[in-house]
Write a structure and sequence with these properties.
The protein has 244 residues and is an alpha/beta fold. The chain is built from 10 helices and 10 strands. The strands form 2 sheets. It has a 6-stranded mixed sheet with strand order 1-2-3-5-7-10, sandwiched between helices. A 4-stranded mixed sheet has the order 4-6-8-9. Belongs to the enoyl-CoA hydratase/isomerase family.
C-alpha cells in the first residue's frame, strides 16, 4: 500500500500524502516513503519543483502516536525538504497539527485555503514542539510562536499567513497557486537552486546547530511519564490528569 500519491505535469511533481486512515499522520512508513519520493525528485531533471499536498480533510495530523517515527528520521525528512535543490510548495486545504507544522514550515512556499486550521498541540500531551522548531521558528513571528506553542490553541489560515507560518491564505488555493507555479516553470534549474539556498540559509543553520540536541530532547520527552499520560489520555479521549 502506497502512502504517497505522485503525479507530474509540466515540470511540477505533485506528492500527495495519502494515508486517510490516520489523517496523514507521520508514521514511520509515511516518513520513509515521502523521503524516498523527494530523493527521486531531486535526481530527476524533468522536475522543476515539488507540490506537496494531501488527500482528505487533513494535511497532516502530526506524529502517529500509535507508531511514531524515530525523531532522527523525521528530522532527516524535514532537512531533505529544506535542502532539496528544487522548490517545495505546500498546498494546504485541511488541518495541520504538531509535527505536520514542521513539514509545512520546511516548505519554501505554502498556500492555505479557508478550510485549513493549525495547532501546536504538543504541550497538551506533555511534549514540546522540539525538532519542528528548526524550520518553524526561523519562519514564524516570535510573539505568535510563543502564544501558540504554549496554549495549543487552534488558528486559521489568515492567522497562519499573518504570523509567517504560511506564505498566503486564499479562498481559492489553486487559483492562488497558478502564478506561483508559472513563475517556477519560467525559472532555470540553476537559478532556482541557487536562490533557494539563499532564502533557506537561516533554516539550514538551525538544523546544523540544533539537530542533535533537539532530537535527543524529543526522544526524552516521548519517554517521560507525563507524555505517557498525555498520549494515553488523547487516545482514550479524556483530559490528562494535569488539566485544571
Amino acid at each position: 500500500m502506497t502512502l504517497i500519491r505522485a503525479d507530474h505535469e509540466r515540470g511540477i511533481t505533485t506528492l500527495a500524502l495519502d494515508s486517510p486512515a490516520n489523517r496523514n499522520a507521520l508514521s514511520a512508513p509515511l516518513v520513509a516513503e515521502l523521503g524516498e519520493a523527494l530523493a527521486r525528485c531531486a535526481g530527476d531533471a524533468d522536475v522543476r519543483a515539488v507540490l506537496l499536498t494531501h488527500t482528505g480533510g487533513t494535511f497532516c495530523a502530526g506524529a502517529d502516536l500509535k507508531a511514531p517515527p524515530d525523531p532522527a528520521a523525521f528530522v532527516h525528512l524535514m532537512r531533505t525538504v529544506v535542502e532539496l535543490p528544487k522548490p517545495v510548495v505546500a498546498r494546504v486545504t485541511g488541518h495541520v497539527r504538531a509535527g505536520g507544522l514542521g513539514l509545512l514550515a520546511a516548505c519554501d512556499i505554502a498556500v492555505a485555503g479557508p478550510g485549513s486550521s493549525y495547532a501546536f498541540t504538543e504541550a497538551r500531551l506533555g511534549l514540546a514542539p522540539a525538532v519542528i522548531s528548526m524550520p518553524v521558528l526561523p519562519r514564524m513571528d516570535p510573539r505568535a510562536a510563543s502564544r501558540y506553542y504554549l496554549t495549543g490553541e487552534r488558528f486559521d489560515a489568515a492567522e497562519a499567513a499573518r504570523t509567517g507560518l504560511v506564505t498566503l491564505a486564499a479562498d481559492d488555493v489553486d487559483e492562488a497557486l497558478a502564478p506561483v507555479l508559472d513563475g517556477l516553470r519560467r525559472s532555470s534549474p540553476q537559478g532556482l537552486a541557487a536562490s533557494k539556498a539563499l532564502v533557506t540559509a537561516t533554516v539550514a543553520e538551525a538544523f546544523d546547530r540544533w539537530s542533535k540536541e533537539l532530537t535527543a530532547r524529543s526522544a526524552s520527552l516521548f519517554a517521560s511519564a507525563e507524555a505517557r499520560e498525555g498520549v494515553t489520555a488523547f487516545l482514550e479521549r479524556r483530559d490528562p490528569a494535569w488539566v485544571l
